[in-house]
Amino acid sequence: MQSLLDNVEVEIRAYRNKLKKAFRAQRANARQRGIKFDFTFAWWVIAWGASGRLYQRGKGYNKYVMARYNDIGPYNIDNVKFILGPKNCSEAHLGKPETSRSKERNRQGQLGRKHSKETRLKMSLSAKLAKKRQRDLAQLAVANFFEINSVKETSSTSAAVYEQRRQRLAERRQTKG
Fold it and tell me: What is the pLDDT along the chain (177 residues), one digit of tens a residue?
């Protein structure tokens, strides 16, 4: 029983150290950005614990962060909320005017890339060939479904099989037309 309690105590100490490291990192980050950080370690843990998100905190898409209301004022118990990281990023950009550089980048993204006439022709031809191949494959699949027992494959390579089936299909079309 004592060894079990010792193991639990070791795990609690390790988790406490992990939390202290996270607390120190957040405090240092706030100082580096010139934002006052009024939390002690105990109040920081209490705030996270009260939010119910302590185990979901951190960096990443589905992780929660401690954010300030309207990104104004210090980090203290009256001025923080716990929200997902991406939401915090989007809130940070609300109401801020776009710079000329970001406006141009957004405009270029909306316009799309300009392709030369030669490139557009190649893209069009490639799309047409892809559609034709898709149609041929679909027709072959249907033909193969009905002839599955009568088809004898002479080659094990898929390219050769595809070519044989395509030729048979072309011959059928010619005999019908």
Answer: 566 666 667 777 778 888 899 999 999 999 999 999 999 988 888 888 888 888 888 887 889 999 999 889 999 999 999 999 988 888 877 777 777 777 777 766 666 667 888 888 888 888 888 777 766 666 665 555 545 444 444 444 556 666 777 788 778 778 765
Q: Which residue has the tokens 């801020």?
A: 96
Backbone Cα Rg of the chain:
32
pTM for this predicted structure: 0.52
H helices present in the chain, as ranges: 2-32, 41-51, 85-93, 100-111, 117-146, 158-176
Helix (H, G, I), strand (E, B) or coil at 120: helix
Domain ranges of the chain: 2-108, 115-176
Sequence-ordered list of residues with C-beta below 8 angstroms from that of 82, at least 6 positions apart, any chain = 48, 51, 53, 57, 64, 65, 66, 67
Residue 18 DSSP class:
H
33-to-3, 63, 87, 90, 121 alpha-carbon distances in Å:
45, 21, 20, 19, 52
Which DSSP state fits 98? P
